[in-house]
Amino acid sequence: MEPERNTIRRVLCFAAHPDDLDFGAAGTVAAWTTAGIQVSYCILTDGDAGGFSEEHRNTIVETRHEEQRRAARLVGVEDVSFLGERDGYLSPTEAVIRGIVARIREVRPDIVVSSHPERNWDRLQKSHPDHLACGEAVTRAVYPAVENPFAFPELAAAGLEAYRVPWLWFYGGPEEKENHFVDVTGFEDVKLQAIRTHISQHPDVEKMDAAVRSMLLGNAVRGGLPGGRSAEGFHVVGVNTEQTIAGF
């Protein structure tokens, strides 16, 4: 369900908020960058509704941007961009989709990673409305807008030509949709370090650590990995593969 690792050169990861990718995919990202794969992040909102203290309202955007950049560096990612949408109000609007299309055409990745557009009823917190909106906007961008030379013609005029995305990987969706599990054993600590970097969001770090480790072990069991392994689960969708027929 995925391209051979030696065919993956670039990956572009989208998230609604700073810290979403660290919970959903940081172990996989660390494995990719360790293997020499270039990974970029694009965060759709500024995370301005995050945090727990009123006194930090004036600086929360700057804080969350810096937290995300530091977390990204821990897993080998230097290219981090923000679309600047308002936290809690994200929608798959034309402007948001245009921004996503622009980033995909700039990076021209082999894999696009995004939060899932479908709600997870087993753990509703995974399905923040912004997460769903991110998944929907990225899906609409990946097909058909990114590969349609007549969509957003101003982007093509600026040199951002149409591009066919091979693979779309979703994190944070319903477990029954997951069809690919990445063994991230050995990357648990760096994933947790990345999550802890978002200190403005975690009132109980020890409880969060325990929950994440348990989740990784549970993913590995569901993925059929040997006992004691850790994994991250994804819903992998082939967009433009050897089996793809144009327009279908």
UniProtKB/TrEMBL annotation:
A Pfam family of this chain: PIG-L
InterPro entries found in the cross-reference section: GlcNAc_PI_deacetylase-related, LmbE-like_dom_sf
GO molecular function: hydrolase activity, acting on carbon-nitrogen (but not peptide) bonds, in linear amides
GO terms, biological process: glycoside metabolic process
Residues spanning the membrane: none
Keywords: Zinc
KW Nuclease (keyword) present: no
Signal peptide (residue range): none
Entry superkingdom: Bacteria
SUPFAM superfamilies hit by this protein: LmbE-like
Record protein name field: PIG-L family deacetylase
